[in-house]
Design goal:
By secondary structure, the chain is an alpha/beta fold.
Length: 366
């Protein structure tokens, strides 16, 4: 009897190992590192298009680029990745009907130490706002020179919008306009209260008592304010409420699984992706506290536009709308995108594309 049990155990173990090895092989095969290409009906690369994944040393460090363009004579749009320290190109692969590259040369930028240019030798304490602003300027100059442009467009996404709004303020001569998608405005308790109220309302609608208890334990309340105890735990709970990266998707569904199954990163790049995110959590830039752009960054010399999802409470849209009302600029606009949460460019591609086309039409100097 014991021999029979042992035999069955070893058979089961072999089956499990075969399944695991097969899954690992499949994972390596799908993780081929390839990105979107532009081909005609005969399978030939369309002349004037560009599909490039590259690493270039700029400002003394490696910078990663995913560049997509159906026509490189179009204006350049530099997209500063979110997080900070989170590469967003996988969203373009997942939502493949997002074709901003029809009207722009879109440059997805992995800045120092993140994504495909993760470097374990970088000291997180060395990553400051001034350093990232210098990098933004250097990358902007590189793109202007490479594509022979006098100016480019700048878009900051979520955590990357902190870098973007500062670059728009400091280097207005380089940009036609700045677009803040899921714009960061403040880390004050104004943000925490809006997040808390949204989550409480959603969980009460579902009669989700377990998550309501989690929500209450995640904040500290006083007579005057509500403050989250731990930002990352708070945002994780926000995904459960439907206001996270993708509307009505958990962090696992909206971020983890799409990255694991993506083609645009190799397996080592996927591992480094996570390592870069962790490094940025401890960076000097991420550690900066007590900021409110509604008081600090008001005057701009270039047009400023904001895109927010109607369910975005990671960077709560009411704060972005309030910020837009306060800034003094040549032109501005706040756009609340229907059906989207934190990633409106991808979640509602039709509406976002229309808005970006209008922005280009108003601001592009041909």
């Amino acid at each position: 009897m014991k021999k029979k049990v042992k035999k069955m155990f070893f058979k089961a173990l072999i089956v499990i190992l075969i399944v695991m090895v097969t899954l690992l092989v499949v994972w390596f095969l799908i993780s081929n590192g390839k990105i979107r290409e532009y081909k005609d009906e005969n399978g030939n690369i369309i002349e004037g298009s560009l599909s490039e994944k590259s690493i270039v040393e700029i400002n003394g460090v490696k910078n990663g680029f995913f560049i997509n363009s159906r026509d490189t004579s179009n204006p350049v749009l530099l997209l500063i990745s979110s997080g900070p320290g989170t590469d967003d190109y996988f969203l373009t692969e997942r939502f493949d009907d997002m074709h901003l590259d029809d009207i722009f040369t879109v440059v997805y930028w992995d800045y120092r130490g993140m994504g495909i240019v993760y470097d374990r030798d970088i000291d997180p304490a060395s990553i400051t706002e001034d350093v990232l602003l210098d990098d933004t300027k250097a990358v902007t100059d590189y793109l202007k020179s490479r594509f022979n442009k006098e100016k480019i467009y700048l878009m900051g996404f979520s955590g990357g919008s902190r870098i973007g709004i500062s670059a728009a303020e400091k280097y207005p001569e380089d940009y036609y306009a700045y677009i803040g998608m899921a714009q960061v405005v403040t880390d004050s308790t104004d943000r925490d209260k809006l997040m808390y109220d949204f989550m409480k309302s959603e969980f009460e609608k579902r009669n989700d008592k377990a998550r309501l208890r989690k929500l209450e334990s995640s904040v500290t309340k006083t007579d005057e304010e509500i403050k989250c105890n731990d930002w990352y735990s708070f945002v994780y709970l926000l995904h459960d409420a439907g206001g996270g990266t993708i509307h009505n998707e958990t962090e696992f569904e909206g971020i983890d699984i799409p990255i694991i199954l993506s083609h645009c990163y190799t397996v080592p790049e996927k591992i480094n992706y996570i390592r870069g995110m962790k490094m940025y959590k401890n960076s000097a830039f991420e550690s900066k506290k007590d900021y409110d752009y509604r008081e600090e960054k008001i005057e701009f010399e270039i047009p400023i536009y904001f895109l927010s999802g109607e369910y975005d409470y990671n960077c709560p849209w009411p704060l972005v709308e309030d910020y837009c009302e306060k800034i003094n600029v040549p032109d501005k606009g706040f756009y609340k995108i229907r059906g989207a949460a934190h990633s409106p460019l991808w979640e509602n591609t039709e509406e976002s594309f229309k808005i970006m086309s209008e922005i280009k039409e108003k601001t592009y100097e041909r």
